[in-house]
Amino acid sequence: MTDEVKPSGPKRSYHAPRRMARAAATRRAVLLASRELFVSNGYVATTIADIAERAQVSPDTIYATVGRKPALLRELVEVAISGTDQPVPAQQRDYVQRIGAADRAIDKLAIYAQAIAAIQQRMAPVFLALRDAAGTDTDCAHLWSEIGRRRAANMRLLAAELRATGDLRNDLSDGQVADIIWSMNGSEYWDLLVRERGWTPDQFAHWLADAWIRILLDRN
User: Which residues bind DNA (predicted)?
Assistant: First the structure.
């Protein structure tokens, strides 16, 4: 005879996939609410309480799911670039891999221009909200500077990749090539032509590729 007490009913299964799905849905709701409010009301004017109310969650859930306001804004920028619910490292992004697989500079630039047009549709409103907030918020200023440095570094890598094709103009240094691409792939440039002047994303992508090809490549 034993003193062990056996459970009276079946064991309750642990539904990890269901729990993960709920957590992912909560995270999406928090990020969507953050995006809407940061873009419409501004970063500084938006509170965690505002976001919680819009997302229909508690403030503590936001802190546990993503973090404070700076973390929310960082996450919005990262997912806007990746086009998924999660940040994706640069070298794992589809368009980066396709650029790397292309042999000619003209093809690399065309792929990148199409990618920028797709990315800016998601990112430009968030990025411009970050730019505006950087003027008054220290955390946002640091994030703005960090992203600017990262963009510039990535453009130097792209310039070196373009140089390796042998198609770039010899009178432009890799630094100049990187700076030209960096200035034209920014949200500010997109905002001027698409939002203010009414260009379509396709028009923007075709213009960007054509401009880069005309400016950067040796066409002789």
Answer: 47-66
